[in-house]
């Protein structure tokens, strides 16, 4: 049986109105029941590699604040991927975070207040070498000793890498564009003829940036440079046992505190290459919490 065209149009219109109303009711219900970013929806803290000091600090924070949230061991890349996915859907998430890191320039994030002081104050990043490097490779040692840069400098390289530029290319571009800074690191340093130097680093965005920049500068004075990513514990062990020549990735006094205490008598501290680093628990700005205490279940 055919339906009258006017009645058919009326039926379709009414169906559309009802469907829109249903969607509206559904959204209203979500609003009344709380947003997807509710703290009650959290079931873990997304961490990085297990050897990192921030992970040990977070375990202490979980105990100190009596949090009912397990710490998920992950990696820097997996953590930022989880963060990006949560933000895309405006979902609740809490991650172990640190500055400098490109994610703070990409997303609206905030550190949670830490009234117990578990994560301490600002940290510095140090350069360490194996014993004997000053005698074996004095030119490399001098560059490493002079190496120092700022958050703006590091962010340029990190953002370029995050945007898809190869780390070596991003480092080379930065070196080409900052000859005044690089000249301070190489002032009075003689050219060498193909001697080898090895650098260890942890695969954090900040350390990928700094290690590739130092590699580029050492290559510019004639070194053949090998860089090796590894977990924090292996990095420190490799320097202490002379398997690697140097690193520019020692976070102190908190993040790498345990490793420093274990190996401080077997390594050489050339001093700070970056000031004002920070660690803590990080959430998106849209989450209506301000303190680690707010993560505590009721």
UniProtKB/TrEMBL annotation:
<keyword id="KW-0732">Signal</keyword>
<feature type="signal peptide">
    <location>
        <begin position="1"/>
        <end position="21"/>
    </location>
</feature>
<dbReference type="InterPro" id="IPR007210">
    <property type="entry name" value="ABC_Gly_betaine_transp_sub-bd"/>
</dbReference>
<dbReference type="Pfam" id="PF04069">
    <property type="entry name" value="OpuAC"/>
</dbReference>
<protein>
    <submittedName>
        <fullName>Glycine betaine/proline transport system substrate-binding protein</fullName>
    </submittedName>
</protein>
<keyword id="KW-0472">Membrane</keyword>
<feature type="domain" description="ABC-type glycine betaine transport system substrate-binding">
    <location>
        <begin position="196"/>
        <end position="296"/>
    </location>
</feature>
<feature type="domain" description="ABC-type glycine betaine transport system substrate-binding">
    <location>
        <begin position="42"/>
        <end position="176"/>
    </location>
</feature>
<keyword id="KW-0813">Transport</keyword>
<keyword id="KW-1003">Cell membrane</keyword>
């Amino acid at each position: 049986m055919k339906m009258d065209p006017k009645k058919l149009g009326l039926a379709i219109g009414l169906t559309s109105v009802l469907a829109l109303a249903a969607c509206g009711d559904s959204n209203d219900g979500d609003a009344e029941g709380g947003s997807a970013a509710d703290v009650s929806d959290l079931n873990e803290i997304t961490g990085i590699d297990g050897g990192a000091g921030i992970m040990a600090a977070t375990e202490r924070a979980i105990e100190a604040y009596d949090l009912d949230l397990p710490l998920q061991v992950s990696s820097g890349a997996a953590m930022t991927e989880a963060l990006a996915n949560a933000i895309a859907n405006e979902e609740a998430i809490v991650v172990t975070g640190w500055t400098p890191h490109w994610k703070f320039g990409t997303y609206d994030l905030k550190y949670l207040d830490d009234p117990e002081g578990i994560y301490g104050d600002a940290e510095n990043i140090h350069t360490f070498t194996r014993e004997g490097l000053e005698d074996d490779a004095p030119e490399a040692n001098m560059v490493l000793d002079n190496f120092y840069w700022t958050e703006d400098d590091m962010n340029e390289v990190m953002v370029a890498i995050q945007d898809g530029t190869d780390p070596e290319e991003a480092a080379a571009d930065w070196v080409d564009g900052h000859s005044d800074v690089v000249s301070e690191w190489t002032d009075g340093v003689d050219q060498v003829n193909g001697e080898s130097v090895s650098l260890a680093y942890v695969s954090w965005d900040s350390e990928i940036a700094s290690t590739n920049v130092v590699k580029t500068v050492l290559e510019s004075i004639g070194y053949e440079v090998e860089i090796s990513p590894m977990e924090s514990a292996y990095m420190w062990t490799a320097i202490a046992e002379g398997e690697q020549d140097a690193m520019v990735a020692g976070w102190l006094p908190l993040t790498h505190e345990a490793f420093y205490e274990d190996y401080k008598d077997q390594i050489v501290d050339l001093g700070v290459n970056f000031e004002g680093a920070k660690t803590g628990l990080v959430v998106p700005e849209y989450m209506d919490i301000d303190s680690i205490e707010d993560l505590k279940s009721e």
